[in-house]
Amino acid sequence: MAGPPRTEWAWIALGSSLGHRGRALACLRAALEEAGAPALLASSEVLTLPLGVTAQGYFHNQVLLVRGRRARSPSEWLRLCTEAEERCGRRPTYRWGPRRADADLLLLGRRGELSSDGDPAVPHPALLLRPFYRRLVAEIDPEVAAALWPPPPEGG
Known about the structure:
- The chain is of the alpha+beta class.
- It has a single domain, classed as 2-Layer Sandwich (Alpha-Beta Plaits).
- It has 4 helices and 5 strands.
- Strands 1, 2, 3, 4 and 5 form a 5-stranded antiparallel beta sheet that branches.
- α1 (21-34) packs across α2 (74-87) and α3 (131-140) runs antiparallel to α4.
- The chain is globular.
């Protein structure tokens, strides 16, 4: 029986809605790099409206394509993200609440080709529900974005 997929490539979404949001994203990038998963490619940083709980400040978001020094399973990638969040000041809050540092595992594999139904689920369950991800993923790799968000059929 094969185990969960392992890869040295991960797509990670960064976010922050508290404090100096740009510094929080820089902290998350540095924490990932120091943990052996530097960003090879990064989208621009954008401000987005909060989802779910909307009575809070804008989120500052970015998507990274990182390459680790070794292949990791989805749970190992998630642990790396969680450790980066904690290092950069994330504290427990409520669902969709404000965050000082947020790092979500979006996709696995250089082309986002690996999936996992386990915990965590990959691709991230909210990936297609957050329209700004389409633009940020496309900045890094338009072909990956086109595979995730195919154009509507002509005449439809």
